[in-house]
Amino acid sequence: MSPTPAPTPQNFVAQRITEALVDLLRAQPLEAITISALCAHAQVGRASFYRHFDSKEQVLTQAAARLIQQWAHQLENDPSAHPAMVFESLFQHFYDYQPFYSVLYRQGMASTVLETIKLKLDLTDDLPNDAAYPKAFFAHGLFGFIDEWFRRGAKESPRALNQLFASSAQSSLEGLKALYQKQP
């Protein structure tokens, strides 16, 4: 599994460090891994680590952000892509990179997935409230679906999950509409 785009000289070192950390995390918790052990496993120097990252957590958060950017880039450049494909494509992405995302979950870093979704939606603190609230609603709803899917072992296929997401969104919107129509 390579959670980064094709390596440039700078990306190559970051990729080595990321892959080494994911590999080490299969056997031990994040707090038990020292920067020295990580660098030795990645076969890079400590200076190289600190040139690219401030912490071990940042290795994982940057890798998650790169993966989502890579997914978005591929989708945006696919001439056959259409809006109905977005969610199934995203669920397929999480399915394809399940080993990486499973590491985040095992390390108690599931919130990294939410932060990555919020980043992709450009949900920032400087947005006006009327733009931020709908993005937050959407980001947390999508994350809730992905989060529950992972926590339950990601048993459904991306296609089945997409169908469930679509029907859930539809029934939720209908329920909200009915609720607001009943108000005096």
From TrEMBL:
From the UniProt record, which GO molecular function terms apply?
DNA binding
List, for all copies, the residue spans of the domain called HTH tetR-type.
11-71
Please provide the record's keywords in A-Z order. Answer: DNA-binding
Q: Give the protein's recorded name.
A: HTH tetR-type domain-containing protein
Record keywords: Nucleus included?
no
Q: Which InterPro entries match?
A: Homeodomain-like_sf (IPR009057), HTH-type_Tx_Regulator (IPR050624), HTH_TetR (IPR001647), TetR_C_Firmicutes (IPR039532)
Q: Which organism is it from?
A: Rothia nasimurium
The record's listing under Pfam families reads: TetR_C_8, TetR_N
Q: Which residues bind DNA?
A: 34-53
